[in-house]
Amino acid sequence: MVGHLDPYFLGVMDETMADLREIFGTTSHHTIPMSGTGSAGLESIMLNLLEPGDEAIVGVIGYFGERLATMANKAGANVRRIEEDLGGIIDPARVEKALKEKPAKLVAMVHAETSTGACQPLEDISRIAHEYGALFAVDCVTSLGGMPVDVDRIGIDAAGSCSQKCIGAPPGLGPVTFGPRAIEAVANRKTETPTWYLDLNLVFQYWGDAEGAKDRVFHHTAPVAGLYGFNKALRLILEEGLDSRYARHKKAHDHFRAGLEKLGLSLFTPESHRLPMLNVVNIPEDVDDLAVRKALLQRDVEISAGFGSLKGKAWRVGLMGYNADPDRIDILLQALEEVLKEVRK
Q1: Neighbours of 258 (CB within 10 A)
Q2: Domains 7-239 and 242-343 belong to one CATH topology
Q3: β-pairing verdict for 158-160 and 173-178
Q4: What SS3 class is residue 279?
Q5: Per-residue pLDDT averaged across 96-121, rounded?
Q6: Which of 96, 107, 263, 268 is in the most buried spot, having the most CB atoms within 10 Å?
Q7: Do 34 and 198 touch, CB atoms closer than 8 A?
Q8: How far apart are CA 207 and CA 200, in angstroms?
Q9: What is the pLDDT of residue 196?
Q10: Nearest CA-CA partner of 90 in 159, 136, 157, 152
Q11: How is the chain split into domains, by residue range?
Q12: At what angle are helices 123-131 and 92-101 packed, to 10 degrees?
């Protein structure tokens, strides 16, 4: 272990920032892994960009859209929710209608809704948000590292993810990126940022300024081991190649979908906007959810339960990073086939 201000570790920080910019698809210096899980990264976006009384429009297509709305509300914003049925996605025209009725400082969306397996298209919503003078923020917790996020091309002003899903590092870090418009909004706040730990003005004194100054100001004790693991995970991604990695996740999804069909199972999310890395599987009416998951655990295979109204009606299967592999998927499918025969006896 080295100290969090050790010259060697400061070099690791610089390398991590550069690699993370490449994976986010941005040239913004303000791209770092926040010390905290993905939830901390997303909350840093809301608490730094929003002030009491600001207008915020949040797309809610599942549990994690709800979370974004809650975070915006806790930042003091007047939150207007645009909701869609589970499995659906937000029509950009609804965002434009809401902005026409009343301007907003921030529009926030979930790119990859983990609770429903839906992928929200971002390009048109980003364009509309900027046309009406709003910042555009995105939760890409489940998508980063498994499919293109393309922050600069799309025009995303702030985005937050996590370390453990498609990136494949241990949990505990919240990668974020803030573009020029977002940083300007932080600089022009009329009120103090209502957080010390997640205050970007303080955090970036530790990570270094955009001019490349090497003088770092202590802010908190960084999770050195976690950041070192994260750094190596980013290296593995770039060595594989982003396009190859994205294709591997898509191939894994297609392999899993074909295997499900052979078992007589189907996916909950409409095919037009399914995520490759998060698959929501409909549970047949004659199958007990918990019985299947317990039996799978006895075979060292873990899948997740459904969220909210999908609890007991769907399983969530993550095919991310190391697990986006046909051989590993075949282990799951074989175990699932055996278990289904057992519980249906």
Answers
A1: 11
A2: no
A3: antiparallel
A4: strand
A5: 98
A6: 107
A7: yes
A8: 10
A9: 97
A10: 136
A11: 7-239, 242-343
A12: 10
Mean pLDDT of 132-149: 98
**Which residue do the tokens 């530790």 mark?**
206
- d(CA 81, CA 68) in angstroms, rounded, equals 10
Has this prediction a pTM greater than 0.70?
yes
7-239 has CATH 3.40.640.10 classification: yes
Question: 242-343 in CATH: which number?
Answer: 3.90.1150.10
One-letter amino acid for residue 56 of the chain: A
Q: Answer for the pair 16, 208: CB distance below 8 angstroms, yes or no.
A: no
CA 55 to chain CA mean position, Å: 23
H or E segment and range at residue 282? strand 278-282
Among 137, 157, 156, 162, smallest CA distance to 40 is for 162
Handedness of CA 96, 97, 98, 102 (dihedral sign): positive
Token couple for 344: 């249906």
- DSSP states along 132-152: TT-EEEEE-TTTBTTB---HH
200 Cβ neighbours under 8 A, 6+ residues apart: 30, 44, 48, 178, 183, 186, 193
Alpha helical stretches, state H, the chain: 7-24, 38-49, 63-74, 92-101, 123-131, 151-154, 180-187, 200-207, 224-240, 242-262, 289-297, 326-343
Q: What is the average pLDDT across 139-143?
A: 98
Residues facing 80 on adjacent strands: 57
